[in-house]
Amino acid sequence: MQPMVTDNTRRSLLKAALFGVCTPILPFGCASNGIKNQPALIGCAVTSRNQFSAVVADKQGQAIRQLPLPARGHGVAIHPHISQAVAFGRRPGEFMMAFDYQNGEMIALNSSGYQRHYYGHGVYSNDGSWLFATEGERGTSRGIIGVYDVQNGYQKTDELTGFGIGPHEVIIMPDNTLAIGVGGVHTNGREPLNIETMQPSLTYLSMNGKVLEQVSLPDHHLSIRHLAHDGSETVLCGQQYRGQPEDTPSLIAMHTRGGEMQPLLAEPEEWARFNHYIASIAATDKWILATSPVGNCYGIWSKETRRLVELAPLPDASGVVVHGDQFQVSSGAGMVVSNQYPLSAQTTVSNVQWDNHWSAIV
Q1: Which of 33, 77, 94, 294 has a CA 20 to 30 Å removed from the CA of 6?
Q2: Residue 292 contacts residue 311 (beta carbons within 8 Å)
């Protein structure tokens, strides 16, 4: 086991900034107090200029409560069995915050520590005992999966490494295998430094750190970043293209262990709409939905044919979750789209300026 390195001063400052963490943004208090709307999803949001929060919302994307964050958040991991979640700082993030989403109480606030930063994503083990977070080494971008003991106050107990640089999102498969989108990009802050030599991959890792399989895409400029799985064995990968501006490569691929990457299909002018970047991905048994905030749109693909079946505009399209066979899509403009393809999509307005990703409470 690797010892945890802690920046006590920075952590103390972060904790001081977050006393009284639960703040109502509707006529609701921190406790439920008979609230009819039940928590169904959690995402990060922009509260006001230079103020950010994690927001617990109902199934329609209407906020129930918000928890202030010390800086801009990115992804949220939700515990599979109890009412706990963790919000991660946006790359290069300096914090992760664990909280109870039913009562709004903060459980732990971890600093990234000396020579480390968070990439903005994490996932619980299927039994809920461990939290796995994507991290990097400052100065080298060496990829790390930080391992945190949930029952021991989210103390860091180990670091898994040796799989590449620049990991972004990690998900867990039903068989407890970790799937990691390894972006392959060495950065200084957010500035890429190795575009011509980057080596992205989709990496499968055991929970004790053994590399089980690594696959890559034909174009090394396709940085693998965001992931989802279909509840079974298929992983969906969303890419950020780091090549020539005029190129229009496929930005999403499917993969099942032991097989080859299978790119999803769309016309060049359709890929151009996504502006070289895929953010959130979700899948039902028939359809795949992916968003692009920089492209102000989302697309739906058939899992069977891999072809794009719908391309829709949505300003600052951000998070997506699945409830049954219905997609819920968030927007930085406050809109929420309910799409049960092939039925017509329904758009409502929420009271939140959603930012980056959504995670569903199961």
Answers
A1: 77
A2: no
On whether the pTM is more than 0.85, the answer is yes
Which domains, and CATH codes, for the chain? 8-360 (2.130.10.10)
For residue range 125-142, list pLDDT tens digits in order: 999 999 999 999 999 999
- Verify cis geometry, omega within 30 degrees of 0, for the bond prior to 92: yes
How confident is the model at residue 103, as a pLDDT? Answer: 95
Give the Cα separation of 18 and 201 in Å (integer).
37
| Cβ–Cβ < 8 Å for 355, 333 | no
Are residues 300 and 310 in contact, defined by beta-carbon separation less than 8 angstroms? yes
Compute the distance between CA of residue 201 and CA of residue 162 in angstroms, rounded to an integer.
13
Question: What number of other Cβ atoms are within 10 A of residue 111's Cβ?
Answer: 23
Sheet of 155-165: strand order equals 116-124, 130-137, 142-149, 155-165
Stretches in the chain below the pLDDT threshold 50: 1-35
Residue 154 is classified by DSSP as T
183 touches 167 (CB < 8 A) = yes
Residue 231: predicted pLDDT = 85
Q: Which residue in this structure is represented by tokens 């090549």?
A: 243
Q: pLDDT at position 49, please?
A: 85
CA distance 240 to 176: 27
Place of tokens 């509707």: 26
